């Protein structure tokens, strides 16, 4: 049992023995970086130590039962387990080995004693600062005491909660202790090889202060900030901090906090030569770790740099991949934000979207590589928007559209688009421009026909017929091929061209949007401005609204039968027929079956083909039905409410026409009709796509079934962690390769990516531009986009999973995003707050139709707001205020 390892003996496979910090110091030492010498007290020593605590296993049992948000419990249990461990002496063998290592390294020196957990300084989890550090330790007894205190610090309150929230089991984490010779620095600080705030990989940042770095880390001083352009080495920004104190080592042991002389408090800590040396050191360390951005702790002693720690920067969002091949900087937009779904997407789901994009292709290889791309980052999809911004006409059109439907995207792009490195990006390929022209050439003519003379009342029926015909053609083309590889190829080929339907539907949406804009301008600053917004209530022909109303009908069938309502909680796939034995069961089962025929292909996060549909697992839908039925609404109330919204809109329409001059009334009436009958078609393209997606999904699962039977896949769901071409290869030859290692690795990446904060806009260098904040924002309020006008006050209900939570009538729905799988919750919502969204994303449209105030795109509302708070949601100004905290 190895209890002590010197840095020079630590190898790349020693994480389990020395923890993240120890492993990094070993790697840096072996690579020849200027690391002060030291050794590690290994996890074997930790296990030997805790074995001397007889009640340790019982403490771990209590910690495993602790909730991730139980701060009081963590405080109580943490204190208890630390006290128990501090009462245990170090084992004699450890004391002997520690004394020998101390003697060999030099008992006359002072040492820093730092905790090094096995779940620390890792690429996927930092755990920085969770355990304890002791500086300027002198003498054998003090060293032994510091090691024991470090062992106990594995159970600080903050470390317990951090592990609980990040899924690390308390009994599966161990602690090593780094003992490193102290250097007494003139200056010290932290270096990030990428900007930790913006994510920019081309910017290196340095924080610097006097003396030991603890004054900086603990927040006692405002450090100097140096931001360096890594491409040129130029200093981009210098911000001098107020360094009024410094922490220094005391010769006899320990540290002292000293006042900094007045003339040095606002002076530069680092001159240009020191900044250049640190920049070079950071670049070399990052290169050593394969280009992974690093967080370095450094010291400067009489002009000599020492590196005392390096760890990956875990807070950066991954770079879009593959990156651009033209040497320029590209701009990417989050596809998930545009679709109001920011969960990770399975590899199969991402692969199929790349087959579809850019919209309008007729075959998979129609465009040359790089014409317009969807790329991956953090298990999400991003769209390369750079080509649209390179040409003046397309740039102006793009910004005009974005300012209307997603103004935050426009505001963020505007801060980046004029940079020379972005303007240097390749222009759109002729093939891409030709595709766009071919796809949209008839749109202006049809748009003019809609605005001037087309019959509008039957637009919804026309769209229903169009979708039904398109889906039937899609199904026939796929099912005409024999099962297996041929059918798989046909399914992808058909999906590639599915959005050729857009030139037929796009003119109607454009007519509705243009008419809404014209009416807003005409009635701006008049008493009828509010009537223009009322036109969007109860729109005609919205297929998602129809779905919601039919969910309400299902809830009505359950409402009057308590036993049936209770049974919905326990129904699993394949068990619906059991409900027929309960009062009201036959009518409900028949109605649900009819609903699933029309809408069973829908579900939460439906843009990911790897996510279950309602037809796969009706429990996802039954939770919403049960929650709606539990409220005391009279049967049919949801339809009466919607009819009331439609009546309000029609009354507003009549007022607008009457308010116009006589000669303009025909024109105003036409614009009103375009809004009422055309805007509701917004959901039809997605409704078409999810039906086609479902046909592809069934084809994939059918092809995967033999692979499951043969043991090549452990379960049908594993197929979503392959690419389409990999599945085709396995269907052709089940033994072409072993898919299980790839699946396991991708599933782990997928699960880890759930915890990432997804940027709305990101560059190919990783920079995430800051979101603009309104100047008149009240203190403590959240700012977003006012997507549905009005002001409402109510109790917040933060919902992260609509399949597991229901909303009470009058509550304000606070959600990360919404898609059709969420809309049953809207029936009882008094207001909506969404982390993501624009004017035409799903939640915004439904909120306007239902007449509830909505603020979307607030960024982190689900983290900053809590269920039970009383909120004021101002959907006109885009502001959310907390009026009161939850009651006792």
UniProtKB/TrEMBL annotation:
Domain Pyruvate phosphate dikinase AMP/ATP-binding span(s) in chain numbering: 17-315
Q: Which Gene3D superfamilies match?
A: ATP-grasp fold, A domain, ATP-grasp fold, B domain, Phosphohistidine domain
InterPro entries xrefs: ATP_grasp_subdomain_1, PEP-util_enz_mobile_dom, PEP_Utilizing_Enz, Phosphohistidine_dom_sf, PPDK_AMP/ATP-bd
Question: Which segments constitute the PEP-utilising enzyme mobile domain?
Answer: 808-878
Name of this chain's protein? Phosphoenolpyruvate synthase
A single Pfam family it belongs to is PEP-utilizers
The source's superkingdom equals: Bacteria
